[in-house]
Every structure is written in structure tokens, then in C-alpha cells.
Amino acid sequence: MNRYGLVALTAAAFAALTIGTDTAGSQEDESAASGSTIEALADTRTQQVLDSGRKIFRFDTFGDQAFWGDTLRLHRAIAGSRNGGVGPGLSPERALALGLKVDVNALPPQLQTNILNDRVDLTSPATTLALLKLDAVVGVRGFFDDSGQLRSVGITCALCHSDVDDSFAPGIGRRLDGRAARDLDVGQIIALAPNLKPLVDLLAIVHPGIDAADVRAVLRSWGPGKFDAELLLDGKATRPDGKPAATLIPPAFGLAGVNLHTWTGWGSVTHWNAFVANLEMGGQGTFFDPRLNDAAKFPIAAAAGFGDVRNKPDRISSKLAPLHLYQLSLAAPRPRQGSFRFAAAQRGKALFAGRAQCARCHVPPLFTEPGWNMHTPEEIGIDSFQADRSPDERYRTAPLKGLWTHTKGGFYHDGRFPTLRAVLEHYDAHFGLALSSEEKADLVEYLKSI
Q1: For every residue of 294-343, which 3-state class applies, written as one string?
Q2: What is the maximum alpha-carbon separation in the chain?
Q3: If phi over 0 gives left and psi between -120 and 50 gives alpha, with beta otherwise, what is residue 216?
Q4: What is the pLDDT of residue 31?
Q5: Which CA distances in Å does 64 have to 54, 59, 72, 185, 367?
Q6: What digits encode the pLDDT tens for the residues 293-320?
Q7: Pairing between strand 308-309 and 287-288?
Q8: Where are the domains of the chain?
Q9: Of 44-48, 186-190, 307-311, which gets the smallest average pLDDT?
Q10: Residue 43: predicted pLDDT
Q11: Contact 325, 10 (CB under 8 A)
């Protein structure tokens, strides 16, 4: 099945239900040409659904500018005092250092030439505003008034789940949708917002006396490539060992056939899309998950009513289906030529399926379990902290395709293992596999090749 096969089947079924239903006789008289017409229409609709999902993924804020801009006033910190905002502003140079990316295809040719010839001031927030007007900043949308002043800002799915190929310059290139944004320092960016009172008020439910400075300290502790999706559910800012509770941003590609989306389950891809769009991005939609009414596990979520969110107009629900289908079309990228040793990878493949027992959980070709792909902390030999922050109190078997794209920041949900070799050392000890050093090296090469 090709890249669009899954979506094509859905579109074909829809087309069959909506075309040629007048009489049984007319259906019997349909010619081969009619069948071709139905197929062509299904193909057209397939492409329309994918195009719609891509646009939503890249550009739709779901109305969250009301939160990031109107409430937190993040746009004012981006603009800076010289451009109607506050403070020094956010220059392209600083934005790139924080892991934000620029879509080169959104830059007019003359602007590209000027950048290459150092005729663009990348230290000026005014340049950032110009890039926002072009919709060139991946995952960030600027909203401008008639005078050209930035009046609000919103974020999209692409902020955390896209990268660029650096084909133009570091941080500037063609979009790579689905990649985990492991350079992105989400916490530092949120901490720029002048008004963090909404976050302070939520966290004060479990931490009376907390203030904006405390919240900024928590946000800045996360580090690049990490985000704490449960912070405003349970208020737990640190792990028992004192390290930040934020987890690594996972990739959004290679999810076709995969049951659960996140490190600790929660629900399907589209469940998590609704969860994030409503509760994390601050979009305006509908979300229902009564598990969040558990005041012992999720004291903030229960108090704030996050288990049953209703907004009118609903700017999210109608977009979940095309967004879901687009994400399912994002195949895991193949490793670059020469990025692994072929002969060693072939030996590692045999070990993966055999004595190392990796394929027992990472079942090819999904490289996770078909079905309920969840395990207790005891089964995988780690602590339960992050699992306990989820409804099922388990960890998902992460899919391994395209693993080479998200090695930055470490492995496991919190990056506790700095290298693939460290992951293998852990499992070797936990399961008593007695793998040799050479066998572990071969397994690493295979993992890089998937």
C-alpha cells in the first residue's frame, strides 16, 4: 500500500456512499467508465483530505491566540518595546537559538538573497515580525492589525512536531512534518510571556503561594526538546530525584497502525490531538475525558473542569479527522545512506528477532505491539513516576521506525539513557540476556537502520 493507501480506502468508501444511489437498476447499468469516475473522485477527495490535514497541522491555531496572545500577551514580548510591545523583543537570532525554525519556502526569493548576502538584520525583532507576516516561522502564527502592528500570536501542531532540513542555513530549510522538535526550548519561550497569572492560578490549586517567578523557574528548567503535558493536571514540577518532570517531545510520524500516541498511553492519536488542542494549546473546542475528574490523581484538572470542556464556536472538533489522516500519512523517514554499518545491522537484525528478544515487544513492521502496547514500570525495570501521572499507570512500547531522527536529548520518555548503547545495557541487565559487547554494537547499528 502506498503513502496514501489508507486514506484512499476511506475516501473510496465515502465516494461509493455518495455517488450513484438513485435506483438498483442504474447501479447495475454502471459501466467501467463510471467505476473509473468513482475512483478518480475518490483520489481527488483523498488529496483534498490530506491537503486539509496538512494545512491544519501547519497553520491552524484552533483559536488559541486568545490564550497565547490576548491572555498571556506573548506577542508583546516577541515584538519588543520598539515595535509596540515590551522588553527587548525576540530577534531571529534569539528565536533560532531557542529552537524555532523558519520555512525557506515561505521566504520570497529576494529575501533569501538578502539573507545570504547579510543584508537582513537577524538581531532585530522587527525582522521576526516580518517573518511572522510571511507565515515563515514554523508552528507560530502572527495576527496583525491594519497598521501592521502585531496584535496577537498563536501556535500550531507544527511547533513541537516539525523540523526543517537546514538546507538554507541552520534552522532555515524545508519543512519536515512529524519530526520531534528536539531543539525547541518550549519552556523558555512560554517564560517570555508578560502575563503568567493563568498558569500561576492553576498551579496555586496545589501550591498555595506560588508566584510568576516560581512558574518561570519551572518552565526554564525543562530544557530543549522537552514539555510537561501533565504539569497543569497534577502540579508535579519535579521527579522524586529533583530533576524536572518534563518529558521528551515524541515524533508524530510512523503512527499508522500504532495504538497509542504518547509515552504513557492516554488514548489514540486523535484523542491526544483533542487533548492537546484544548488543554495544552489553549484552543477553543470540545474535549471529554472523565478520567481527569480524579481529584487525587489530577487535582488541578479536576478543579478546573478539564474533563469536560465545551466551547462555542467549536474550532477543533471538525478538524480532528483530516488532521488524524494527515498524521497517519506521515511515514517514518529512512536513515541516510552511510549512517550505519550494513553488515553489523544485519547481524543486529537477527539478534533483535532472536536472542535479544527485542521483537517480543517491538513487533516488526510496527516496532510496537499490535493491540494494547502498554507495560508496567516493573516489566521494563524503571520507576513509576511518569506512568503514575497517566490514567493507566503504564508505559507505551515506543515505535522504533525513524529512531535516528530523534536521538538528541536521550532515550526513554525523559531522556534518562543518553545513548542507544545505554538502553541496551539497561535491558541486558534487566532481562539477564548476557549479550556480548559486539552483539550490543550490532544491535545499535540495526536500530539506526530501521
Answers
A1: CCCCCHHHHHHCCCEECCCCCCCHHHHHHHHHHHHHCCCCCCCCCCCCHH
A2: 76
A3: alpha
A4: 56
A5: 18, 12, 11, 19, 35
A6: 999 999 999 999 999 999 999 999 999 9
A7: antiparallel
A8: 5-59, 65-195, 207-331, 342-449
A9: 44-48
A10: 85
A11: yes
CB 367 within 8 A of CB 400: yes
Long-range contacts of 296-299 (CB under 8 A, 24+ apart): 297/234, 297/388, 297/389, 297/391, 298/233, 298/234, 299/205, 299/206, 299/234, 299/235
- At residue 32 the predicted structure's pLDDT band, cuts being 50, 70 and 90, is low
Query: What are the angstrom distances between the C-alpha of 166 and each of 95, 102, 104, 174, 262?
Result: 15, 9, 9, 7, 27
Are 387 and 377 a contacting pair, CB within 8 Å? yes
Say if CB 48 and CB 42 are below 8 A apart. no
Could you report the per-residue pLDDT of 127-162, keeping only the tens digit for each?
A: 999 999 999 999 999 999 999 999 999 999 999 999
Supply the pLDDT for residue 185: 98
Residues forming a β-bridge with 153: 142
Cell numbers at 323, concatenated? 488532521
Q: Which helix (H) or strand (E) holds 5?
A: helix 5-18
447 backbone φψ class: left, alpha, beta (φ>0; ψ -120 to 50): alpha
The answer to whether 338 and 189 are in contact (CB under 8 A) is no
Strand ranges (E), 106-253: 140-144, 150-155, 162-164, 172-173, 175-177, 226-227, 247-248
Q: How far apart are the first and last CA of the chain?
A: 19
pLDDT of residue 34: 76
Quick one: cell of 375? 507495560
Going by their DSSP bridges, the two strands 102-103 and 172-173 should be labelled as parallel
CATH topology of domain 342-449: Cytochrome Bc1 Complex; Chain D, domain 2 (1.10.760)
Confidence of residue 12 (pLDDT cuts 50, 70, 90): very low
| Residue appearing with cell numbers 539477564 | 432
Q: Indicate the Cα dihedral angle 440, 444, 445, 449, nearest 10°.
A: 140
Vertex 165: Cα angle to 160 and 168 (nearest 5): 120
Q: Angle at CA 322, nearest 5°, toward 317 and 328?
A: 120
Among candidate residues 412, 399, 391, 411, the one with its CA nearest the CA of residue 373: 399
